[in-house]
Amino acid sequence: MQHPVPSAEQAQWLNADGVRDVELAFADVTGFARGKTLPAKAFIKGQQLRIARAVAIQSCVGEFPDYRFYGENDPDVTLLPDMATLRRVPWADTPRALVLCDNVDHDGSLSPLAPRSALKAVLARYAARGWTPVVAPELEFYLFAPDADADAAFQSPALRGSRRERGFDAFSFSTLNDHEAFFDDIYSGCEQLGIQTDTWVHEMGPSQFEINLMHGDALALADQTFLFKTLLKETALRHGLRAVCMAKPLAGEPGSSMHIHQSVVDASGRNVFSQANGEASHVFHHYIAGLQRYLAELMPLYCPSPNSYRRFVKNLAAPVNLSWGVDNRSVGLRVPVSGPEARRVENRLPGCDANPYLALAASLGAGLLGVEEELQPSAPAVGNVFSSGEDSSELPSTLEAALAGMRAGSACSRLFSAEFAAAYAAVKEVELASFQGEITAWERRFLATLA
Ligand SMILES: NC(=O)CC[C@H](N)C(=O)O
């Protein structure tokens, strides 16, 4: 694999902007940015960087699974920059750039442990059919006051006139105005990072917001979502705020999702979910059936923590089922009303805590398996599935149950690799052991006083 150098034009702006360092970054399995920083002069000359292969599977508690999941001698990978992603870092005072990288093993292949490789593996299966997925992620997140004691509930930030948001406040503009300086920085940060945003809204929860990204290529959108979450957190810190992408940060309030709208186009750009006469195609129904058949066993990839499963409660617009239906927000797989060229399905299951590469890989992978196997979906749901009780046991309700389902099935290793499937499950076991090793505030509050 040829090691890339920045183009003459890129080298020129790095020099002209006085960029001192370039971050060679990638998302680990938790979705957190990791990598190394290189002086810009060395980057321009094409200096290669290596990093331990295991960094891609660092758990959210900082520990790694056993070495057998990444190589007994703890080997390196090469960080291979994707020069199309080279950008100025918006949150840095000293001029700095970042470039997103693939992790490449010594044999020149993409390391199967890296989330960007997992998404590329699924996209290659689409490409082999001459198809390209089109996706649009929607991200919800909360803004909180900083320095919360980890044992205390998050607090909404102070607003103009010393107000604090309480209760539901969906689609208001007032709080967007309260945080105008923060949102201005987010907008210009998005521009610098090449993140194409569409609509912004105040979501239902106190200081909960949603941003929709413009639909497009899946790898580009995974990169943009990863960068957006990093931008969000860094910008919030600079404004004395805390941006939180946990799936369920506040008890009794809505959780935060990362819905994924998805369709597929052929080489001529035609949406394969529609027939020439405008009706839904067989592919569309197979695709939905694939989501229904495989999303449950892939759930740890897009609902990755014990907290993720707290989001799935009825009547808070979070899905509790794998039903599908047209213009129906009570189902997990919603088909928005659209013309034939925009026919798509919205997977409402992923939380905002998901790693975007893995959430997209799982969602696109499940749909593709349905097409490959020509599966048939259930009949579309009609009416409110929350109240009809069609909440089924098709979805696991804890991370433990989801992991057991993933291990019992084969979709993860079929879509990615046996190595990735084993390593990912091992990371989740490390995190679960740490979670179960903590005594919670609830236990202290209610159990300590019992005789
Ligand atoms: N935008 C919405 O439809 C709300 C989604 C809801 N917050 C969830 O957790 O899934």
UniProtKB/TrEMBL annotation:
Domain GS catalytic residues, every copy: 115-451
> EC number(s)?
6.3.1.-
Domain of life assignment: Bacteria
Q: Which InterPro entries match?
A: Gln_synt_N, Gln_synt_N_sf, Gln_synth/guanido_kin_cat_dom, Gln_synth_cat_dom
- Report the residue ranges that make up the GS beta-grasp domain in this protein: 17-108
GO MF annotation terms:
ligase activity
Q: Does the keyword Nucleotide-binding apply?
A: yes
TM ranges: none
| Keywords, sorted A to Z | ATP-binding, Ligase, Nucleotide-binding
Q: Into which family does the record put it?
A: Belongs to the glutamine synthetase family.
Return the PANTHER family for the record: GAMMA-GLUTAMYLPUTRESCINE SYNTHETASE, GS CATALYTIC DOMAIN-CONTAINING PROTEIN
Q: What is this protein called?
A: Glutamine synthetase family protein
